[in-house]
Amino acid sequence: EVQLVESGGGLVQAGGSLRLSCVASGFGYDDYALGWFRQAPGKEQEAVSCIDTSAGTTYYADSLKGRSAISSDGAKNTVTLQMHSLKPEDTAVYYCVGRSEVLLLSDFWTDPDQWDYWGQGIQVTVSS
C-alpha cells in the first residue's frame, strides 16, 4: 500500500520561504512520479509541480514557476518542494501526490484525476 506523508507546512510572511517534504512508501519499483497539488478555500485543486523520480524530469505550473524547486531523493523516497518569494495567494492546503505510471507524464500531470495516491495535505499560510 502506497502512503504519502507530508511535512514542513506552516505560517510564513509574504516574501518568505518554505520547504515541503513528502515521504513515499509502498511503491514496488524505482520509477514513479511524485508531485504537489494545492487547494485554496473555495477553489479547485491546482497542480503545482511534479517529478519523475527516475529520470529526474520536473514540471512546474505557472503559479509557482520561478519561485519553487522540486527535487527527489530516491534513497529516502522523499520529494521536496522548496518555495520562496511566497505571496498571500499561495495560501492553501498542499497535497503530495503519487503515480506509478510515468509514461507521458507531461501530458497529464496537471490533472488531479490522473494521480493515484494522495497525502492528507498540509496547510501553508502566507500572511501579508
General description of the model:
With about 130 residues, the chain is mostly beta strands. About 5% of the residues lie in helices and about 50% in strands. It has 1 helix and 11 strands, in the order E-E-E-E-E-E-E-E-E-H-E-E. Strands 2, 4, 5, 6, 9, 10 and 11 form a 7-stranded mixed sheet that branches. A 4-stranded antiparallel sheet has the order 1-3-8-7, with no helix packed on it. A hairpin with a 5-residue loop joins strand 5 (about 45-50) and strand 6 (about 60). The chain starts with a strand and ends with a strand.
Rounded to an integer in angstroms, the radius of gyration calculated over CA atoms is 14 Å
Order of helices and strands: EEEEEEEEEHEE
Distance between the termini: 40 Å
Shape: globular
pLDDT averaged over residues: 94
Count of extended strands: 11
**The biggest beta sheet, please?**
7 strands, mixed
Helix content: under 10%
Number of helices: 1
Structural class: mainly beta
Unreliable spans: none
Strand content: over 45%
Give a brief outline of the structure.
By secondary structure, this protein is mainly beta. The chain has one helix and eleven strands.
SSE layout and pairing:
Blueprint: E1 3-7, E2 10-13, E3 18-25, E4 33-39, E5 46-52, E6 58-60, E7 68-73, E8 78-83, E9 92-99, H1 105-108, E10 117-118, E11 122-127
Parallel strand pairs: 2-11
Antiparallel strand pairs: 1-3, 3-8, 4-5, 4-9, 5-6, 7-8, 9-10, 9-11
